[in-house]
Structures are given as C-alpha cells and as structure tokens.
Design the sequence.
C-alpha cells in the first residue's frame, strides 16, 4: 500500500471578518467596537489522493476549493486539522517540497508580459535549478504535446488567451513536478482550446505519473479527465468517488426520450414533459418509476424509439448544490 | 441677464468641484502629506544652503542676509503653493486612460473644472502650509521690509501670477494629445522654472544677461515677481512694469490656449476618441 | 551560488523587457543628463558666491553629487521597482506564484524587477565621482577609499531595508504605494551635506528617512570627514535595520498566509 500523495484529515480554515451593518450609525459604532464573524471556508475536510490520480475538485463559488488548494500548496496556514503532500507539511514551505509541486491559476499569469515565453522559461530553469539537458528534454516534450513551436518566440502580450494558457502550463511543468494543482485552467478559453488542454493533461498524467488535482467549473473538463471527483460545499465534503456514482447518488430523476410521429400526443400523465421537437419528447421521471413509465409508454403509444438517460451532469451538480443550500 | 446666469452657473460648478476635490483629498491623505513634505523641503533646502553661503561671506550675499533668504524662501513656498498646478500629469493620465472623451462631451470648457479643482485643493493645503511656514519662521527668523503699496500691489500680482502659470501649464498639458513623453517635457519645463522663476536662487543673484532672459520669459512672472514684490525689493516702476508683463503673458496664453486646444481636439478625435 | 545566477537571470529578463522599447533608452539618457546638468549648474551658482559651503569645497561637493546620482541610480534600478512590484503583487495575489517557488521569497521579490535604464544614472554618478576623485587628488588615500566603499555598502543595505519595511506594510495596510514616495521626496535633500541642516532636520534625514546614509555619509568618508562613531554607527545600523526588515517581512508573510500570530 503506497503512501498517499496528498493526505488531508479534518482540515479547517476559518477567517475572522469584521461584521458591519450599513448606515452611518453602524459605521461610527464600528470605530469603537468591531464585531467579528467567523467564516468557515474549509470545515473538516478529509480525503487522500494516491500518486498518479487525476481528481476533479468541484464546488460552487465560495465552496472552499481555492482555499483548499492554497493550503495544499503551502500558501495558507490552516486553522486546524492536518495535511501532508508528498510527505511534507505544505506550509513549512521546504525547498524540497516546493520543487515537487506546481500551481497553475487560470486567471493569473506568472509569465513576464513583454518578453517571449521562452525567456520566462529560462527564469524558471534557474529558479528550479534544472540542468540544461533536463530542461531541454522537458521543454521539447512540452512543446510537442502543447504545440508551442511558433508561440515561444512571441512576446507573451501578443499571444491569444488560449496560447498564453498553454505557455503558462508549460512554464509550470518545466521542473517535472509530481503534484500538479490546477485552479480553473480552462476558464475563458474557447471549446477547441479547452479540449486540447484536457488532452494534454491526460497525456501528461499518463507519461509522468504526476498526481493532478483539478478544479473547474466546466463539467466537460471533469467528465473527460477525472475518474474520481470530490465535491465540496460550504467547506465540507459532499461526495468523494466516481463521477457516475455522483449522478447515481444525487439525482432523483432520469430522462426518457421518446420518439413519436409528431408532438400531438399529450404525455403529461407519464411524467414531466420538458420539451418536444419533431415528435421527440423529453420526459423527466422520478428514478424509482423509470421502469414502470417505460413499460407504459411502450405499451400505450406507437413508439418509434426510446432512450433512458441520466440527466446532464450540470443539472446534477446544480441539484446537489441547491439541495445543500435548501 | 445671461451673463449673470452664466456667472451663477460657473459658481455652482466651482462649489460642486470643491466638494468632489475635498472628498478625494480625504481619501488620499497619506499621499497628500507626503507631497506636502516635498513642497516644504525644496525651498527649505535652498533657504539653508543660501543662508550658509551668506553667513560665510560676511553676512550677506547679493543684498540678502541669512534672514533675508529666510523671508524670500518662506514667501516663495507660499506663493508657489498658490500658483502651483499639476495639470500636466492630469492630462497625461486622462489621455492614457481615454477619459478625455468625457470632458469633450460636456458643454462647459474643461478648463473651468480644472481651475476649480486646483483652487479647491489649495483651500485646504494653503492653510496647512501657512502654519508650517509660521513654524519655520520661528526657527529661521525671516526679516523683510514692508510697505503698503507693495502689499496692495501684491494682490493683483499673485492673481495674475496664478493665471499666467495655470494657463501656460494647461497649454503645456495639451502636449499629451501629441506624445506620451510628457515626463520628459515636464522635466525641461521644471528645470526652466527652477532657474528662471527664482527657485534655485533669487533672480537678482544671477548675472545680468540671465536676468534679462528671465524678464523676457514668463517664468519669473509666475513665481519670482510676486515674491520680490511682497518683500518690498522692487521699486514702484519695476512693480508696474511687472504687472504689465504679467498681463501681457495672460493675454498671450489665452491666445495659445485657443489655438492649441482646437488643434489638440482635432488630433484626439482623428485618432478615435 | 544560485543567488548570483538568479540575479543574472532577472537582470537578463529586465534587459529583454526594456530593449523592446528602444526609444526609452534615449529618453532616459536625455532626462538623466538634464538632471545632472541641473545639479552641476546649481553648484556653479552657489560657488560663484563662495569658496566653501559649510566647509565643503567645490571638488568635494562634486563628489557628493556623484554619490547622489550613483546611489540614486541603484535605488531606481533595483530597489524602487522591486518594492513597488511587491506592493502590487500583494494586492493582486500574484505573490502566490513567488511563494510556490523553491527560493527565498524575500530574495525573489527584491530582484524581480529592474529598471534597466537607471544604469545610466549609475554610470553618470560614477563618472562624476571619478572626476571628483581626480580633482581631489592626493587627499583621497587608501583609508578614505576603503571607508567610502564600506559606507556605500552600508548605505545601500540601510536604504534597501528601509524600503522593504515600508513595502512590507502592504501585508497589513492597503494603500501603501504612496508611502514609498516619501523617500524620493526627501532624497533631494541629500544633494547637500547633512551638516548644513539644523539638528531636527538632520535627525529626520538620518533616523526617520535614512537619506543621510545614502549620500552624505559615503561622501564624508571619501573626503576624510568621517568620524569613528559614525562609521561604526552606520555598520551597526545596517545590520540592525536588515535584521528588522527581515523580521517584518517574515511576519508579513505569516500574516498573508493566515498563520496564527
């Protein structure tokens, strides 16, 4: 049984924020007596990641994903609990630890703006003390996988958003880290670029065996890359397991698609009709009744085709979060 | 009637601008404080340097004793504060941020809100500086002659000085329409001010030919002249000539503003405001 | 040592950054020459009325101007840009990238940005200094030269530590970028010997904003005016201030990363 690459146990992060009502009276009062409120950004989170896993980290905004990622990369001190990454305590920020991890933040750049990306790479080479041979080898591999060739000599500011992101990712992987934290890496990118980056991450993980923890709002990222997802909300673990398991556990409905001659028939008796187009009805039925409704449809109507589907993942996640807030 | 209405509108504009300026000054208290340090330190340093020279040269230099220098530089500090503008940086910022379009859309000439902003902030900074100057006066014991007509002539002199300086610096600020190298232009301007407005030394300490140059150029009339006047270092004839020179420069600068503003707006709109 | 390689690589990045804008070189050259010209013209005016300014002769004043530009060049080359960038990165969170790198964060933020064209000021200052040395001739011996180098180093450490302390305040307070301006505002007083100023101003320029250690003290060392106490005091202050700056930096980082105080 190998050591987990990432280990969290009852990890907590609480912020104290000043609480204040609006208005002049409250503003003046706050000069003398400030009421503090405790916000639990992360509240007793526990999970383990094995080396080489790609795990999706899901949650609505403010769920605690970025806070957790920051604690795992040593940027934040937790308020409680324990956490180990590659056998080190992250916030001790030991050199050996920092050399083995990397953090990519979708909305922030570490590349120097006015110079070609290759010069920023040089910077990282010196900072991470890479030998010229290793550096060249890794760079060639990344250039090939990410199709960076023509981009390297252009000043970063002249690159498109997607091209910039590819270079940012390359810069972050030059030192062959064993743990890769990706915080919304595909945000703002077009669909083609998103797909390319997904392919890259999968390939990189396969070749290097690095452990990847990925947060994203795009379900397509998670569905394509992550066999395992961890869902958090209000700083607490909601689900940890297979993506399909997530759908199973949290959805109360299934979608039945029935193809008839036209949209004339009224199918309200069978379930909730979501829409109809050219005779193709989309019905939502409670999970438990799926088999029953299917039987009745087939028996009662001239069905040309019938399909039973899980609701789209976005809807499931949506349900999960609204359920929790309710 | 229309004139009265115009004046009332203008006054309302100025009053409103004062409120806005005051609010933003409160926000930027720290930078205001730091800026005022340099406003005080620069004349203070010259005061000390020249006093040292004067003390080691038998008590006086070029008609100024150490106490005379103290009076000169403290007066300079206050007059400078009254006539000072930062409008060149304002316009560089506005052009860079593309905010000039807003000013161009308004029905009032932008120079009015600029003057209002300038004067409003001085309503706050001048009293503070006056207190500092009073404190420094206790330390450095300035002495100066005083006579009534010079004191009276000082009032139009300082108002004209403000106008000459503001109008010319406002015109210079429009260079932001044509170039981004405003810093370099400003630097040349400030060096000219330093030497020819009586900052690095009272102008009477310069060789005669340089004093003539200073009389022809506008810088002396923006700053040095009112200072020399209030310290009673000028004869009535010199004072009158000075006021005439200031008025001439106000007239010249109004023409310049007209021409350059029109040209500038054309350039700005051509590029695509 | 890796520090030197880091220094070189950041320097290289800054050069590459700036040479993208060639015109800046000529503009900066123009401005630096203007500044130097102004300083020298000012000296000329003063010395047309006297032979010595508070005991300082023209050649000695020239040396002071040289030091003023030399140290000013160092500050605008590496200290000011780095500390200004530090404040920005605390505010927009890009400091996080620096913190995930396996190098000392204080070192990285201090050399992360350089304004390459300030090298012109540095060169100019050195040129003026050499001119002054030639003029001063025999009066500058090995002892004075050694003290000068020592005071220059001590001055650089003191100024750096001062700026770092100010910039580190951005970990706790928000609008700190204006605070950095205070050094530049008061630096102009460093063009003249500190001994001219009344006691309270001398105190402010020594212990509140350490302008004196940047310009006057090294110049005093060069012109043989430096007393033993000042020499030792400067070294002592350099060590002390550096330690304090390091401490405040570490405390700031802990605050930034939410460690319990």
Sequence:
């Amino acid at each position: 049984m190998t050591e987990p690459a990432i280990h969290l146990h009852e990890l907590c992060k609480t912020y104290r924020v000043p609480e204040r009502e609006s208005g002049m009276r409250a503003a003046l009062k706050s000069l003398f007596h400030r009421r503090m409120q405790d916000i639990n950004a992360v509240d007793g989170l526990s999970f383990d990641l094995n080396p080489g896993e790609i795990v999706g980290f899901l949650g609505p905004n403010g769920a605690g994903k970025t806070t957790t990622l920051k604690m795992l990369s040593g940027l934040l001190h937790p308020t409680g609990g324990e956490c180990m990454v590659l056998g080190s305590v992250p916030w001790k920020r030991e050199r050996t630890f920092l050399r083995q991890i990397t953090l990519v933040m979708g909305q922030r750049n570490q590349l120097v703006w006015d110079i070609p990306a290759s010069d920023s790479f040089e910077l990282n080479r010196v900072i991470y003390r890479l030998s010229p041979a290793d550096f060249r080898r890794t760079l060639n591999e990344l250039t090939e996988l990410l199709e960076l060739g023509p981009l390297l000599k252009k000043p970063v500011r002249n690159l498109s958003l997607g091209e910039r992101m590819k270079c940012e990712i390359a810069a972050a992987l030059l030192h062959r880290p064993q743990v890769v934290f990706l915080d919304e890496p595909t945000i703002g990118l077009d669909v083609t670029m998103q797909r390319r980056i997904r392919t890259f991450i999968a390939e990189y993980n396969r070749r290097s065996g690095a452990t990847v923890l990925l947060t994203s709002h795009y379900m397509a990222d998670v569905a394509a890359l992550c066999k395992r997802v961890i869902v958090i909300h209000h700083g607490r673990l909601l689900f940890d397991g297979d993506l399909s398991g997530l759908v199973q556990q949290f959805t109360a409905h299934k979608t039945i698609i029935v193809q008839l001659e036209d949209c004339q028939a009224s199918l309200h008796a069978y379930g909730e009709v979501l829409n109809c187009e050219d005779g193709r009805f989309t019905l939502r039925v409670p999970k438990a009744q799926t088999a029953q409704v299917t039987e009745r449809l087939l028996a009662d109507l001239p069905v040309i085709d019938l399909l039973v589907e899980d609701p789209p993942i976005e809807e499931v996640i949506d349900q999960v979060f609204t359920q929790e807030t309710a | 009637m229309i004139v009265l209405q115009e004046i009332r509108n203008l006054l309302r504009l100025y009053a409103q601008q004062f409120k806005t300026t005051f609010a933003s000054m409160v926000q930027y208290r720290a930078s205001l404080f730091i800026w005022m340090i340099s406003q005080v330190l620069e004349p203070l340093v010259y005061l000390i340097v020249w006093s040292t020279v004067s003390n080691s040269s038998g008590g006086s230099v070029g008609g100024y004793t150490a106490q005379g220098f103290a009076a000169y530089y403290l007066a300079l500090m206050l007059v400078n504060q009254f006539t000072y503008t930062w409008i060149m940086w304002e316009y560089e910022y506005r052009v860079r941020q593309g905010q000039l379009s807003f000013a161009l859309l308004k029905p009032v000439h932008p120079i009015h809100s600029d003057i209002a902003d300038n004067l409003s902030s001085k309503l706050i900074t001048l009293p503070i500086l006056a207190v500092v100057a009073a404190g420094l006066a206790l330390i450095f014991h300035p002495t100066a002659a005083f006579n009534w007509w010079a004191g009276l002539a000082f009032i139009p002199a300082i108002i004209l000085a403000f106008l000459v300086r503001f109008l010319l610096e406002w015109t210079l600020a429009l260079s932001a329409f044509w170039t981004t190298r405003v810093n370099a232009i400003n630097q040349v301007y400030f060096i000219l001010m330093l030497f020819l407005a009586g900052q690095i030394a009272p102008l009477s300490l310069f060789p005669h030919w340089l004093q003539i140059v200073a009389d022809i150029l506008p810088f002396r009339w923006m700053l040095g002249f009112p200072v020399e006047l209030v310290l009673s270092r000028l004869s009535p004839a010199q004072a009158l000539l000075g006021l005439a020179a200031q008025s001439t420069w106000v007239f010249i600068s109004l023409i310049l503003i007209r021409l350059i503003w029109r040209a500038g707006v054309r350039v700005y709109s051509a590029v695509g405001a | 040592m890796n520090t030197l390689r880091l220094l070189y690589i950041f320097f290289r990045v800054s050069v590459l950054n700036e040479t993208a804008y060639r015109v800046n070189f000529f503009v900066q050259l123009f401005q630096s020459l203007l500044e130097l010209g102004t300083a020298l013209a000012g000296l000329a005016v003063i010395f047309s009325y006297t032979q010595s300014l508070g005991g300082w002769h023209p050649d000695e004043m020239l040396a002071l101007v040289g030091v003023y530009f030399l140290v000013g060049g160092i500050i605008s080359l590496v200290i000011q840009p780095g500390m200004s960038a530090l404040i920005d990165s605390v505010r927009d969170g890009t400091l996080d990238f620096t913190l995930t790198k396996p190098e000392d964060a204080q070192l990285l933020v201090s050399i992360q940005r350089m304004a390459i064209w300030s090298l012109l000021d540095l060169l100019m200052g050195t040129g003026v200094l050499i001119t002054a040395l030639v003029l001063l001739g025999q009066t500058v011996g090995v002892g004075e030269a050694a003290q000068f180098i020592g005071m220059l180093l001590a001055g650089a450490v003191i100024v750096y530590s001062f700026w770092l302390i100010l910039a580190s305040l951005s970990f706790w307070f928000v609008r700190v970028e204006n605070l950095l301006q205070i050094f530049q505002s008061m630096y102009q007083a460093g063009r003249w010997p500190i001994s001219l100023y009344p006691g309270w101003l001398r105190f402010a320029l020594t212990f509140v904003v350490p302008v004196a250690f940047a310009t006057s003290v090294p110049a005093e060392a060069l012109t043989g005016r430096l007393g033993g106490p000042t020499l030792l005091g400067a070294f002592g202050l350099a060590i002390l201030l550096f330690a304090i700056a390091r401490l405040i930096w570490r405390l700031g980082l802990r605050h930034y990363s939410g460690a319990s105080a």
Observations:
- The interface with chain A takes residues 2, 5-6, 9-10, 12-13, 16-17, 20, 92-94, 96-97, 99-103, 108, 254, 257-260 of chain C (CB under 8 Å).
